[in-house]
Amino acid sequence: MLTVLDGKRRYLARKNGMYHIGDFAVLKDLKEGKAKLGTREVYVLRSNLYDYISTIKRKAQIIALKDAAYIIARCGIRSGWRVVEGGAGSGAMSIALLYYTYPDGKVYTYELRDDFAAIAKKNVENAGLQAHWILKKGDIRKDVEERDVDAFILDIPEPWEAVDMAKKALRQSGCIMAYIPTYNQLERVYRKMKSVGFVDLEATEIIKRNILVGDMGTRPDNVEVAHTGFMVFGRKL
Ligand SMILES: C[S@@+](CC[C@H](N)C(=O)[O-])C[C@H]1O[C@@H](n2cnc3c(N)ncnc32)[C@H](O)[C@@H]1O
Question: What is the pTM of this model?
Fold first, then answer.
């Protein structure tokens, strides 16, 4: 998969090495390096996770890339792992999980709503990562069929209601993570994980700040996303 950088705009070249703006194919037979688009020079780069996540079409709020990166590291998610996730939303976290479990792992994503499932499917397919993805219609709080999975990733409004299911589905030492926007939800899911015996608990937030490098001086960007989500982690004993 290739990414085209057209000034500040970033696009995935979706089909047969073509660069698309909307449904309009602009450049054919793309190769890594520089390319001409009319009189403009664009850069063609091999796509990475940053490209996939920053170009997805959003319907639901996504797990931010900075948070997804910590989730991957804290849980140790890697190639060959089997991961259960819910819900699909826009598919951003699914893409991160698929990227790191490739090629031998499996990601099972549970989603209640058809409209979100459809948008997540489109985004995962645009990233070309669908081969080891199983998207299931269902409630992650009660419908999970998989057992001995390596990680259980929750981004739903009531994650505490899925903690018992996670305990059933996870293997020993397997990682649970809940992503929530408010302190009330954080406390509730933390206490629930503790009460059912998850260990190595951590509640955390990642703060990222961009720095503008200018000719006259270098300083933090004055526009910032101040809050995305909190994360609560635990491991099954
Ligand atoms: C905030 S979005 C998830 C965003 C996603 N993590 C991403 O990065 O794009 C929450 C999703 O969870 C789904 N959902 C809510 N409760 C659920 C449940 N009990 N089981 C499965 N999906 C659920 C919603 O329909 C919605 O699509």
Answer: 0.95
For the chain, give the mean pLDDT.
94
* Each residue's pLDDT tens digit, 107-123: 999 999 999 999 999 99
Span 57-85, average pLDDT: 96
| Strand (E) or helix (H) holding 205 | none
CA distance 172 to 235: 8
61 in contact with ligand 1, CB cutoff 6 A: yes
Determine if ligand 1 sits within 6 Å of the CB of residue 93.
yes
Contact between residue 221 and residue 211 where contact means Cβ atoms under 8 Å apart: yes
> Which of 1-5, 66-70, 76-80 is predicted with the least confidence, judged by mean pLDDT?
1-5
Domain ranges of the chain: 2-47, 53-235
Angle between helices 65-75 and 92-101 (to 10 degrees): 40
N- to C-terminal Cα distance for the chain?
40
Evaluate the CA torsion angle 48, 54, 60, 65 in order and state its sign: positive
Topology classification of domain 53-235: Rossmann fold (3.40.50)
Cα 6 versus chain centre, distance: 24
Q: Is 139 annotated as a binding residue?
A: yes
